[in-house]
Structures are given as C-alpha cells and as structure tokens.
Amino acid sequence: MIGDRVKKLREERKMSMTELADKAGVAKSYLSSLERNLQTNPSIQFLEKLAAVLHVPMDSLLHNQVDKESLDADWLKIVQEAMGSGVSKEEFREFIEFNKWKLKNQEPQDKES
C-alpha cells in the first residue's frame, strides 16, 4: 500500500510525520490517514510533494518494486528461480532466519576448537 511505503521511507529518513507534512506543505491529518491506509487514493500532486521531500522518484511510492539495479545478476537469477519454483516470501524469510540462527549457534563451537 502507498501509505506503508510512505511511512517506511519517512522512518528510514528519521522524519516525524509533522516534519514531513510541514516540509511537503500537506496536512498532517491527511498524511496520517494515508500512512494508516485509511486514505488509499491520494492525488498525484500530493504524492509529488512527498516524493520531493523524501528524495525518491514518485513511482517508488506507487509501486512496491525491488530496485533491480542494486542486485547483481546472480542474486536476481536466484530470486527469480525461487519465485518460479513456488517459494513464498514467507518461506524465504524463514530460511534466512533459520540460517541466521544456525550461524549464531555455530560461532561458540568454532571458537572453542
């Protein structure tokens, strides 16, 4: 949802809702309703103002896309293969969490050797 993306970008930039609303020249109450996904159809002008303050292209507010340019070809291929084979996002996240747990639990054993 657009509101989720706006909130994420705002928080990544360590901005308060008041600060973003003031800098963009928009109503804080409207921004709040957008971030809470109560307002789901903001105007293009509203999004342009937010995008300018957040220093992102407006389409990054509209579309939840992975920046393919930041992925090298091998990672992109792996992600595409996982998606094509039916691996869900949740299954992929579970694997990552399991791998983190496994690595964390192996460290003390390696140090003892």
TrEMBL record:
<dbReference type="InterPro" id="IPR010982">
    <property type="entry name" value="Lambda_DNA-bd_dom_sf"/>
</dbReference>
<dbReference type="GO" id="GO:0005829">
    <property type="term" value="C:cytosol"/>
</dbReference>
<dbReference type="InterPro" id="IPR010981">
    <property type="entry name" value="SinR/SinI_dimer_dom"/>
</dbReference>
<dbReference type="InterPro" id="IPR050807">
    <property type="entry name" value="TransReg_Diox_bact_type"/>
</dbReference>
<feature type="domain" description="Sin">
    <location>
        <begin position="62"/>
        <end position="100"/>
    </location>
</feature>
<keyword id="KW-0238">DNA-binding</keyword>
<dbReference type="Pfam" id="PF01381">
    <property type="entry name" value="HTH_3"/>
</dbReference>
<dbReference type="GO" id="GO:0046983">
    <property type="term" value="F:protein dimerization activity"/>
</dbReference>
<dbReference type="Pfam" id="PF08671">
    <property type="entry name" value="SinI"/>
</dbReference>
<feature type="domain" description="HTH cro/C1-type">
    <location>
        <begin position="6"/>
        <end position="61"/>
    </location>
</feature>
<dbReference type="GO" id="GO:0003700">
    <property type="term" value="F:DNA-binding transcription factor activity"/>
</dbReference>
<dbReference type="InterPro" id="IPR036281">
    <property type="entry name" value="SinR/SinI_dimer_dom_sf"/>
</dbReference>
<protein>
    <submittedName>
        <fullName>Helix-turn-helix domain-containing protein</fullName>
    </submittedName>
</protein>
<dbReference type="InterPro" id="IPR001387">
    <property type="entry name" value="Cro/C1-type_HTH"/>
</dbReference>
<dbReference type="GO" id="GO:0003677">
    <property type="term" value="F:DNA binding"/>
</dbReference>
